[in-house]
Design goal:
The structure holds two protein chains of two kinds.
Chain A lengths: L1 E9 L5 E10 L4 E5 L6 H8 L7 E6 L2 E2 L5 H8 L2 E5 L10 H11 L4 H15 L14 H13 L5 E5 L7 H18 L2 E6 L2 H7 L2 E6 L2 E7 H6 L4 H10 L23 E9 H4 L3 H8 L3 E12 L2 E11 L2 H13 L3 E8 L4
Parallel strand pairs in A: 3-8, 3-9, 6-7, 7-8
Antiparallel strand pairs in A: 1-2, 1-4, 4-5, 9-10, 11-13, 11-14, 12-13
Helix pairs in contact in A: 3-4, 3-5, 4-5, 5-6
Chain B lengths: L2 H38 L9 H15 L3 H7 L1 H8 L5 H25 L3 H9 L4 H32 L10 H10 L4 H29 L3
Helix pairs in contact in B: 1-2, 1-5, 1-7, 1-8, 2-5, 3-5, 4-5, 5-7, 6-7, 7-9, 8-9
The chains are: A alpha/beta, B mainly alpha.
């Protein structure tokens, strides 16, 4: 378990990079930290393995407070924490095999054992036939695979991922994320990843924290974040992968904020997740409340095997029925939001 | 050109190569570690230590600011102390070495600074000690660039060794001055220049070859 307690970091220039960060990351989970550039996420991940020393606070990994370790104790501890980087940081003078051997050399692992481990890892990351190539001969995705192999060859408990997919093209991102997920499952390595790409969080993270101006402003399971984001920043991030803005076509409806005519229809958005997706909500609105409902737009997405969806519907009916229907909607575990009013003759 | 001149030319070439080779080896042994020290003791680096870094940088700049011909005569007492003579080829090696050390140190410093800081960070994240980072990251990664730099220094030393005649050091430069210039033997002058050009070309060729071979970037 990794616990960050009241971690703050300020640089001498009086810039607060991190302010009172509290996080608990469980063993075996994939924990995502998302934020815009400059939000402090790089500093945060470096505070976990002490590449950056927090100004105050505790970083407790498996019961040990990293901030209180001596230099040599810290080096020993770092062997249990692998790290991968946006720009891979491979040694250009070493082959793939030699790059992966690097941490083992540092720890004085016997050559025979090195060979066995590296052969296994090469197999796992799918680079067996590239073992004698130099990094300059590899594609970005292959370089990151080497980076991952190097980070996990020493059997760490934790893998820190510093924007590991940010320099890769979308296809490669997918394959790297699958590899990380694989490693997480097969080797039970806890993965902490920082990113500015919601896609990354959505694909593999179990839980997520959103960091802004050095603060954690929201923390939840990824599913909760997508279905009920609490902050504007969270909504913006989600918008980047599942659009929260109105589809272009719907703008032709001339939506207005105020009801202008008595026969104006209400346009609203419903967000729901797996467990309620099976309920006949629309049918119920039509049948029990005698409303006319038409579906204007809908999406369904999956996060960690759970479906969640959004519907934009156009509702019309008598005021009392609408009020009653709204009360019913509010009693359900779905998010509903009135987007505006449109004139009745659409 | 008479056979005597021919053998003189060979003898001088031998002296030049001897002076350059020995001073280059000595200067590298001292200069390369000093160059590394210049980088790693700087603020924010793996062995940050301004108490070493600042004086070191100052001394290196100081020596580099002294023109070689002045350095050569200025350190005569030191030369005499070290090699028990202040004239001759061996005596010339001492100032050549002294002049080359800071030159090499600065060149190595520049080469090492070209290494992306992420590489050092990655090694630190794996628990590498500063010595391991120097041996396994900084030196191998900077090797192609260091080889290029050393080539430049060797060529400069060939040039500087021409001034060694001032303290009786001999060598090709001395030959060119004494025979070609002072005795008006233009053929000796031209022959010397041709030999020097060939020597420098060869050094550069070998240096480039080694650097390219080491470069996997």
């Amino acid at each position: 378990m990794i616990e960050l307690k009241h971690v703050s970091k300020s640089y001498t220039a009086g810039v607060d990079a991190l302010k009172d960060i509290n996080l608990t990351i469980n063993d075996g989970e994939i924990f995502g930290i998302i934020g815009q550039s400059g939000a402090g996420k790089s500093t945060l991940i470096r505070c976990i393995n002490m590449l950056e020393r927090p100004t105050s606070g505790e970083v407790i990994i498996n019961g040990k407070d990293m901030t209180k370790l001596s230099t040599s104790e810290l080096r020993a501890e770092r062997r249990h924490i692998g790290m991968i980087f946006q720009h891979f940081n491979l040694l250009s003078s070493r082959t793939v095999y030699e790059n992966i051997a690097f941490p083992l050399e540092l720890y004085g692992t016997p050559k025979e054992e090195q060979k066995k481990k590296i052969t296994d890892i090469l197999e796992l990351v799918g680079l067996t036939e590239y073992k004698d190539k130099y990094p300059s001969q590899l594609s970005g995705g292959q370089k990151q695979r080497v980076g991952i192999a190097r980070a996990i060859v020493s059997d760490p408990d934790i893998l820190l991922s510093d924007e590991a997919t940010s320099a890769l093209d979308p296809e490669t991102v997918k394959s790297i994320l699958n590899l990380l997920k694989d490693i997480n499952r097969k080797l039970h390595i806890t993965i902490i990843m920082i990113t500015h790409q919601m896609e990354v969080i959505k694909s593999i993270a179990d839980r997520v924290a959103i960091i802004e101006h050095g603060h954690i402003i929201e923390q939840s399971s990824v599913l909760d974040l997508f279905t009920s984001p609490k902050t504007e920043t969270a909504r913006n991030f989600i918008g980047s992968v599942s659009s929260n803005t109105l589809p272009e076509g719907l703008k032709n409806y001339h939506i207005h904020d105020e009801r202008e005519n008595a026969d104006d229809h209400i346009m609203m958005r419903l967000s729901f997740r797996g467990d309620v997706a099976n309920e006949p909500i629309i049918a119920k609105l039509a049948r029990d409340y005698n409303l006319e409902v038409s579906i204007l737009y809908g999406t369904v997405d999956f996060i960690q095997g759970v479906s969640f969806g959004k519907l934009i519907i156009d509702v019309s009916g008598s005021d009392s029925n609408i009020t009653a229907a709204f009360n019913h909607l509010h009693s359900l575990p779905i998010e509903s939001e009135v987007l505006g009013y449109v004139s009745g003759n659409i | 050109m008479s056979p005597e001149i021919f053998s003189l030319l060979f003898e001088s070439l031998g002296e030049t190569l001897y002076m350059v080779a020995v001073s280059m080896i000595c200067a590298s042994i001292l200069g390369i570690p000093l160059g590394i020290l210049l980088v790693v003791t700087e603020k924010g680096e793996i062995l940050a230590c301004p108490a070493i870094n600042k004086p070191l940088a100052f001394i290196i700049n100081m020596i580099r600011s002294i023109p070689f011909i002045i350095l050569m005569v200025a350190i005569i007492p030191f030369t005499r102390f070290l090699v028990h003579t202040s004239i001759g080829t061996t005596a010339a090696i001492v100032p050549l070495t002294i002049a080359a050390i800071p030159y090499i140190a600065r060149m190595v410093e520049t080469s090492i600074r070209e290494i992306p800081s992420g590489l050092i960070e990655a090694a630190e994240s794996m628990g590498a000690t500063p010595m391991q980072i120097i041996r396994k990251v900084l030196l191998p990664e900077a090797l192609p660039s260091i080889l290029e730099s050393l080539t430049v220094v060797i060529v400069s030393l060939v040039g500087a060794s021409a001034m060694a005649g001032t303290i009786g050091g001999g060598g090709l430069g001395d030959l060119a001055i004494r025979y070609g210039y002072q005795r008006f033997q233009a053929d000796v002058m031209i022959a010397t220049i041709i030999v020097l050009v060939i020597v420098v070309q060869l050094i550069q060729f070998i240096g480039n070859y080694l650097s390219r071979k080491a470069d996997k970037r």
